[in-house]
């Protein structure tokens, strides 16, 4: 037992479904639809299930979360000459890749170091501007009527918060916003990839804009060449098999020790692909939604980690946001260790002991070499995001985190203090 436990190595986030279960579901659907069975049946089935799961009006699947953002921006850009995207200085850099590809200006806003939320002080949004909320780690960003009035449009990115509620609505589904989500690794729903655009209800003042945007999105998505082949789905099956197998706490050590796999690295792809979602991705998403629908353990695990770190000077954005915890499903638990050196120490010990720790994004957005001094990118101060990038750790909260892992973390922290 002791030997077995010393091999436990946690993935930072995400639970994967067995690809054999996906095949079985395919068989069940084939039986259900009989002669009328085709890939559209699968898309409709998944779409209806996801729409009722998050209470959304209408869904448009895409090949990735980045593409979902890109399609919204491209449709908006067709209707406005010089639009600007406002976004947080600490978030997934692929968002800027989508904005640059859609020929948007970007305006980067700093974040608050206690809550990780955007600082809106003194901003006076340009005409024709969009605000993107990232809702990182499962924490819902505030979305007020004031914000909805100040921007032409709000994109509510639910990639890391699809199961979280903001007040009583799922993130991504608020009226007068357009939601998106990604379904790649380490997201709220870790399937095999793919993304979605979420159409919500709108008030009369936004009716015209919404109708035009969604007409364009439909046209653009329908004009994409279908690239689905048996070979591509077979490759996805194998990918599913690898993800599922190596998400086991006893096997994750293997891929995690191979440097060229770049696990956990933040990657930037300025020339990302625009294509359609594959059937095997849709089915994996469908089953993941069904299987992992109750995730109350994420908050329970966060509370246990917090106990482990109680002697360390830190900030917990989850607590600083004053949220109703029964509405929250975390993808990872973020903590800000005030002493930078201490953070490095903790990271090293937890990593050596296979405790699924990550450091999150390494830089404020403007500092990635791809965006540095870019003529279309304007940046406010980055004091908050610079503070965070050097101090944040994120801890795993998924169902494979066990008491033994948390105890191990506690022992390691205590050993260090002696
Ligand atoms: C908040 C957020 N938005 C968008 C994306 C982009 O999604 P994808 O990897 O599917 O392109 C990611 C992930 O990388 C993300 O974390």
If strands are numbered along the chain, what order do they take across the biggest sheet?
A: 1-9-8-5-4-2-3-12
Number of domains: 2
- Known CATH architecture of the largest domain: 3-Layer(aba) Sandwich
- What can be said about the biggest beta sheet? 8 strands, mixed
Briefly note the structural class of the backbone. alpha/beta
Q: Helical amount among residues, as a percent range?
A: 25-40%
State the total count of DSSP E strands: 13
Gap from first CA to last CA: 27 Å
Uncertain residue ranges: none
The chain-level mean pLDDT equals 93
Gyration radius, rounded: 21 Å
Overall shape: globular
Counting H and I runs of at least 4 residues, what is the number of helices? 15
**CATH class division of the largest domain:** Alpha Beta
Strand content: 5-15%
Report on the structure:
The protein is of the alpha/beta class and 418 residues long. It has 2 domains: 13-294 and 362-377, Aspartate Aminotransferase, domain 2 (3-Layer(aba) Sandwich), CATH 3.40.640.10; 297-361 and 378-417, Aspartate Aminotransferase, domain 1 (Alpha-Beta Complex), CATH 3.90.1150.10. The chain is 40% helix and 13% strand. The protein contains 15 helices and 13 strands. The strands form 3 sheets. An 8-stranded mixed sheet has the order 1-9-8-5-4-2-3-12, with helices on both faces. A 3-stranded antiparallel sheet has the order 10-11-13. A two-stranded antiparallel sheet has the order 6-7. A hairpin with a 2-residue loop joins β6 (165-166) and β7. The longest helix is centred in the middle third of the chain and has 17 residues, at 230-246. Pyridoxal-5'-phosphate binds next to α4 and α5.
């Amino acid at each position: 037992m002791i030997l077995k436990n010393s091999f436990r190595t946690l993935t930072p986030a995400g639970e994967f479904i067995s690809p054999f279960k996906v095949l079985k579901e395919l068989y069940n659907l084939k039986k259900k639809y009989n002669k009328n069975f085709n890939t559209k049946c699968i898309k409709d089935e998944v779409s209806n299930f996801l729409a009722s799961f998050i209470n959304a009006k209408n869904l448009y699947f895409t090949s990735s979360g980045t593409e979902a953002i890109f399609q919204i921006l491209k449709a908006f850009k067709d209707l406005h000459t010089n639009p600007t995207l406002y976004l947080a200085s600490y978030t997934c850099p692929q968002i800027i890749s989508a904005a640059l590809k859609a020929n948007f200006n970007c305006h980067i806003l700093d974040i608050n170091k206690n809550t990780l939320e955007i600082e809106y002080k003194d901003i006076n949004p340009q005409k024709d501007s969009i605000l993107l909320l990232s809702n990182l780690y499962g924490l819902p960003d505030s979305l007020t009527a004031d914000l909805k009035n100040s921007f032409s449009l709000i994109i509510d990115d639910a990639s890391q918060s699809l199961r979280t509620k903001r007040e009583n609505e799922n993130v991504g589904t608020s009226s007068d916003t357009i939601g998106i989500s990604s379904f790649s690794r380490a997201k709220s729903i870790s399937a095999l990839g793919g993304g979605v655009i979420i159409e919500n209800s709108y008030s009369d003042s936004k009716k015209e804009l919404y109708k035009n945007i969604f007409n364009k999105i439909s046209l653009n998505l329908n004009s994409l060449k279908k690239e689905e082949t048996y070979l591509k789905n077979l490759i996805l099956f194998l990918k599913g098999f690898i993800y599922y197998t190596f998400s086991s706490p006893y096997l994750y050590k293997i891929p995690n020790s191979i440097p060229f796999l770049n696990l956990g690295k933040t990657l930037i792809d300025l020339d990302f692909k625009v294509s359609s979602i594959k059937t095997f991705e849709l089915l994996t998403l469908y089953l993941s939604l069904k299987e992992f629908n109750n995730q109350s353990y994420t908050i329970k695990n966060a509370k246990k980690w917090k106990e482990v770190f109680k002697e360390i000077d830190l900030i917990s954005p989850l607590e600083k946001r004053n949220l109703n915890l029964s509405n929250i499903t975390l993808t990872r638990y973020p903590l800000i260790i005030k002493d930078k050196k201490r953070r490095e120490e903790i990271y090293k010990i937890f990593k050596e002991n296979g405790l699924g720790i990550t450091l999150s994004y390494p830089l404020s957005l403007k500092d990635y070499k791809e965006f540095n001094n870019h003529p279309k990118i304007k940046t406010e101060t980055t004091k908050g995001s610079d503070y965070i990038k050097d101090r944040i750790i994120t801890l795993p909260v998924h169902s494979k985190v066990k008491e033994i892992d948390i105890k191990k973390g506690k022992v390691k922290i205590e050993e260090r203090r002696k």
